[in-house]
Automatic annotation (TrEMBL):
It comes from Chelydra serpentina (Snapping turtle). Residues 1-60 are annotated as: Disordered. Residues 118-191 form the EFHB C-terminal EF-hand domain. One of its GO terms (cellular component) is cytoskeleton. This is EFHB C-terminal EF-hand domain-containing protein.
Length: 197
């Protein structure tokens, strides 16, 4: 049994003739088509028969330093901040309104001061000890910060502490100092010493 092309039979008119365009119909040129002449390449070298060229993807290229992004997330001590990789989904943090000082139990709005899923699954050393972000950014007097530094084992002379305190005061427009600003100043000093040596 010989199979014939079903589409060929369907295209024929009931009287058996081939379909044709009406005489008043416009024939479109290549101007509005999706496939342009520059998108066509020869099917084989030396022939006039053309085929659409294959589209390339960015993943088709092989890079010498190929690394997956999942291997880069928190691959080093400290890890990447959340701003370095895309977050998916609808943002649920209300950054357009300030968080109330006293929150009600029924207030389920996330003002950005709550932990995300990563912080819950892999808590930092600080949160395991009960020290949170609000504790780092709380304004503290000079004596309290000096006591905190001594208690955590930072050996710093009074003269050096005064310099660090002055630099931290200059960073804030009101001259307020918190533990995080002192940490940043100490990190800058340590980085400048390691660059020099």
């Amino acid at each position: 049994m010989v199979l014939r092309n079903y589409d060929d039979e369907q295209r024929k008119k009931p009287d058996g003739s081939e379909p044709s365009l009406p005489e008043d119909a416009e024939i479109k040129t290549n101007d509005g088509s999706l496939l342009k002449d520059e998108d066509l390449v020869p099917k084989e070298p030396g022939t006039s028969e053309k085929t659409p060229k294959t589209l390339t993807r960015p993943t088709d290229r092989v890079f010498a330093d190929y690394r997956t992004t999942s291997s880069q997330y928190n691959a080093t001590v400290g890890g990447l901040p959340a701003a370095c990789y895309p977050l998916y989904g609808v943002p649920t943090i209300r950054s357009d309104i300030p968080a109330p000082r006293i929150r009600r139990i029924s207030d389920r709005t996330n003002y950005g001061d709550e932990a995300n899923a990563y912080a819950l699954l892999c808590p930092s050393v600080f949160s395991e000890k009960g020290v949170y972000e609000r504790d780092f950014f709380k304004t503290r007097p000079k004596a309290e910060i000096a006591r905190i530094l001594r208690n955590i084992g930072v050996s710093i002379s009074d003269q050096n502490f005064e310099e660090v305190w002055k630099q931290a005061c200059m960073k804030h427009h009101r001259g307020e100092v918190c533990v995080e600003s002192i940490r940043n100043i100490l990190d800058e000093i340590q980085a400048s010493h390691t660059k020099c040596s």
